[in-house]
Amino acid sequence: MAKQSKLRLGIVGIGNMGKSHIANIVNGSVPSVELTAICDSDAAALKAYPDYAHYDDSKKMIRSGEVDAILVATPHYDHTTIGIDGLKAGLHVLVEKPLAVHKADAERMIAAYNKRPNKKQQFGAMFNQRTDRRYQKIKELVESGEIGELQRVNWIITTWYRTQTYYNSGGWRATWAGEGGGVLLNQCPHQLDLIQWLCGKPSKVNATIGIGKYHDIEVEDEVTAFLEYPNGATGVFITSTGEAPGTNRLEIVGTKGKLVADGPGLTFWRNRETTDKHLATSPNGFGTPECWKCDVPVGGGGGQHSEILENFAQACLGKAKLMAPAVEGINGVELACAMLYSGFTGKPVDLPMNGAVYERHLKKLIKDAAAKPKRRKAKAKTKKAASSDFDNSF
Ligand SMILES: NC(=O)c1ccc[n+]([C@@H]2O[C@H](COP(=O)([O-])OP(=O)(O)OC[C@H]3O[C@@H](n4cnc5c(N)ncnc54)[C@H](O)[C@@H]3O)[C@@H](O)[C@H]2O)c1
Predict the structure, then answer these.
(1) Which of 128, 188, 209, 276 has the highest Cβ tally under 10 A?
(2) What pLDDT, on a 0 to 100 scale, did the predictor assign at position 173?
(3) How remote is the CA of residue 25 from the centroid of ligand 1, in Å?
(4) What single string gives the DSSP state of each residue in 140-169?
């Protein structure tokens, strides 16, 4: 039998992101995908695309025989239910970020994947920023030992400024029930994935969070988190949707030097002698190790969403290894949950954290929010929020 050359894909959720994926497929950026079906619970969302089979229920599309794989681009909570349904039905599944709203849901998805009926099924996550050549280079430098032993990581990612109008655009955004959080769940999943992809998983998280600090919303719009790593390294992760002009600066320090991604490019401040050796043996009380400033050639921002989708399709066709396996998506989700839980309790959270405890906490937040009078003052008469949850600041 001839080998299948294209993956028959169905997209669930034809909103901002679903439309963007369709555009990438139509413009030829994802050659290994044949889009066969689209699904949205709002039938009006499908009208613009007469060339594909239409479904208003993902269950029907999953069992239609028309798709080998689904891409889930719905609001966050449905990533879990639809993702699990697809996995159980034997389909390949690619899930938009975040993998899930909270750790227990991510665990349920991974459990379904581990019990998948067909061992060849692929389970990917849309972590498109992993295709950015700069992050790939940072990963290569960290993993190869070029920066020595990790001592500190700082990420200030405050280029997520959003207005009240954005939040007032309604729907599922900026609510515990609809979205499961604020800036950590909507804007930051990429950075939360990358920070653990580049530097590994922290063992402890301590955070201060601002709940509706700048906006009339019930979820967090500012976070400052302190991270501790198993080797004693520390980290600080700062994000906000209420600060302008924003900063996107990633700084990773090791015993052999410092990597800085701030604005375009990547700088490696390379120590000729490791700091641990220098500080123990230098006869000089104040000198620092000789350091060379290196402009690291990076090579562009990568293919982003198209590249992840093409890689997923190729993995499903048995031609490639997944760049962003969904089982790794739990790490960023856990970081978000730990930051929120620490912020609410005022206590540090040891990782791995208990997903069930956080799920109970989230359910209480949802219940409390439902009991409160609506906080939002100016109800949306404006157009739907723009598809601007991309970080274009690098
Ligand atoms: N990777 C990225 O860079 C990126 C960027 C933006 C958004 N996203 C993610 O994409 C997802 C969707 O975001 P969006 O901005 O497109 O939202 P959106 O609100 O514009 O679109 C969501 C669509 O899903 C539909 N929908 C809701 N529940 C459904 C269900 N159960 N079955 C079928 N359809 C359903 C809605 O009718 C809507 O058309 C979110 O998870 C978001 O975090 C990712």
Answers:
(1) 188
(2) 86
(3) 17
(4) HHHHTTTT-SEEEEEEEE------HHHHHT
Q: Does the residue 134 lie in any domain?
A: yes
Q: Tens digit of pLDDT for each residue in 101-112?
A: 999 999 999 999
- CA 286 – ligand 1 centroid, Å: 55
C-alpha–C-alpha distance, residues 369 and 365, integer Å: 6
Give the residue-averaged pLDDT of 3-14: 93
Same domain membership, residue 96 and residue 38: yes
Question: Could you tell me if 394 and 132 are in contact, meaning their C-beta atoms sit under 8 angstroms apart?
Answer: yes
Give the residue numbers spanning the domain of 108. Answer: 7-128+304-324
pLDDT tens string 113-143: 999 999 999 999 999 999 999 999 999 999 9
Please give the backbone phi and psi of residue 198, each rounded to the nearest 5 degrees, phi first: -85, -40
118 and 167 share one domain: no
**From the alpha carbon of 56, which atom of ligand 1 is closest?**
33
Residue with token string 């978000």: 336
Closest atom of ligand 1 to CA, residue 78: 31
Q: Show the tokens assigned to 212.
A: 């509706």
| Residue of minimum CA distance from atom 40 in ligand 1 | 75
Cα gap 115→318, rounded to integer Å: 20
- State the pairing for strand pair 69-72/7-12: parallel
